[in-house]
Amino acid sequence: MSFSHKILDWYSAHKRKLPWRETRDPYKIWLSEIILQQTRVAQGMPYYHRFLEAFPTVHELAHASEENVLKLWQGLGYYSRARNLHATAQIVVEQFKGEFPTTYEGLKFLKGVGDYTASAIASFCFDVPEPVVDGNVYRVLARYFGVDIPINSPAGIKYFKELAKEVMDTENIRDYNQGIMEFGAIQCAPKKPNCLLCPLNDGCVALKDNKVDSLPVKTNKTKVRIRHFNYLVYLDERNQTIMEKRKGKDIWQNLYQFPLLESEKEIQAEAFQQHFKSEMVLEPFESYYLFNTEPIVHKLSHQHLHTKFWILKTFHNLENGTPWDVVTKFPVPVLIADFIRTLKI
């Protein structure tokens, strides 16, 4: 039995029941693929249902405000996915009359849709014989064929795409693509794969050569950047605060936050006013205290944010202040959402 037929047999017996597998609607499948990028199924499932409830079709999503989309996305991270999701919905409605392209090349034209997502939508919806290559597929192919080319190198990306084309099942590409990804997620898992009961174990090079734990190979990760964030949480006598929209192309673009003072190193309580006066002019305050004495470390893919929240009390009413009970309606990073839930006013 061929490699692809073994994958299909395994998938038939072990596939999970997931809502996006019950449809060929490209909108629903595209939505699921964007949500599941860098997100586990268990975490992404509630968001999938939430988005479909709020935006049943691509037209509703296209006509929504970006702020509403970001608020609904809150907690999933990698917010560029949400912005691209919204932009692509508008492209589909405005340029394609609400119909998704039916080809791999046409789908890659859409914002935020790369090789993997285009291959997934094309094969799942339209039976286009295009292989998917995600982290799970890299792992299965690298182990079974014993490939030690780094999967995040240009040579590796090209090699594995060609290998995936060679071994795919073109007659049943929809189930095969979903099957090999499912196989990598459950059977050929990153840690403690079930090699003893694996239907591919008789031909797996990694198992034969005792390299299961060392494949696939990745080149060194990007060095992690340490940043020190100090959020200035103003509170006046009417329990109003200040919220700002985060601009620029840095992390959390277009999300809301409290005024931010970024410092080169951690600021201690006794030195706060000195930093505040020399580096930032916003609103005067009469007293302040540090909400968390130890920095909250928020880890992103290439950045670790060491964060402190400073509560600044003022006796004058803040001009254009935001009532505290309205703050929860803003789309904010999960780091700030957690703080808002914790602070008792």
TrEMBL record:
Gene Ontology terms for molecular function: 4 iron, 4 sulfur cluster binding; 8-oxo-7,8-dihydroguanine DNA N-glycosylase activity; adenine/guanine mispair binding; metal ion binding; oxidized purine DNA binding; purine-specific mismatch base pair DNA N-glycosylase activity
SMART domains for the chain: ENDO3c (SM00478)
Gene3D superfamilies given in the database record: Helix-hairpin-Helix base-excision DNA repair enzymes (C-terminal), Hypothetical protein, domain 2, Nucleoside Triphosphate Pyrophosphohydrolase
EC number: 3.2.2.31
Cofactor binding remark: Binds 1 [4Fe-4S] cluster.
Keywords of this entry: 4Fe-4S, DNA damage, DNA repair, Glycosidase, Hydrolase, Iron, Iron-sulfur, Metal-binding
Residue intervals of the HhH-GPD domain: 35-186
GO biological process, one term: base-excision repair
Reaction catalysis annotation: Hydrolyzes free adenine bases from 7,8-dihydro-8-oxoguanine:adenine mismatched double-stranded DNA, leaving an apurinic site
Enzyme class, broadest EC rank: hydrolase
Function per UniProt: Adenine glycosylase active on G-A mispairs. MutY also corrects error-prone DNA synthesis past GO lesions which are due to the oxidatively damaged form of guanine: 7,8-dihydro-8-oxoguanine (8-oxo-dGTP).
Similarity comment: family membership: Belongs to the Nth/MutY family.
Protein name: Adenine DNA glycosylase
Source species of the chain: Flagellimonas sediminis
Classification lineage: Bacteria, Pseudomonadati, Bacteroidota, Flavobacteriia, Flavobacteriales
Gene, per the UniProt record: mutY
